[in-house]
Design brief:
This protein is an alpha/beta fold. Helix content is 36%, strand content 20%. A four-stranded parallel sheet has the order 2-1-3-4, sandwiched between helices. Strand 1, helix 1 and strand 2 form a beta-alpha-beta unit. It is globular, with a radius of gyration of 13 Å.
Length: 123
């Protein structure tokens, strides 16, 4: 668990990246740093950082995403922070991403993208 301010809206930072051979931790660290900066700039408190290794296209089959769903379902978070849409599911499986985002929205949980070109559009 990441320490957080009790007054700030609680969010979960979800990190799912391909483990590159050259810099295996580089992408993960960038996603974490970017997510923390995004939250800090918007007054959000990261309740938990959840990670998965990229590979399984169906997020519902990933242990980390199952944790994200649990946090959303129990009302512990108001939003899920991800770097970009393919973090949830790769483009060839975009219908899985749409399924998960719709499910989260039904619970009142927003998905927010932390990558600057997407976050500046208010997505």
């Amino acid at each position: 668990m990441t320490p957080h301010d009790e007054a700030a809206p609680h969010v979960v930072l979800y990190v799912c990246v391909d483990r590159a051979r050259v810099a295996p931790r580089g992408a993960t660290q960038r996603a974490r740093t970017e997510g923390h900066a995004y939250a800090r700039e918007r007054g959000l408190a990261i309740a938990e950082v959840v990670t998965d290794t990229y590979g399984e296209p169906d997020p519902a089959r990933r242990r980390g995403w199952q944790r994200v769903r649990q946090l959303a379902q129990t009302g512990h978070v108001t939003a899920v922070l991800v770097r970009w849409p393919s973090t949830i599911a790769p483009e060839p499986a975009h219908e899985l991403r749409h399924r998960e985002v719709a499910w989260l929205h039904e619970l009142g949980v927003r998905v927010r993208y932390t990558w600057a070109p997407l976050s500046s559009k208010g997505l």
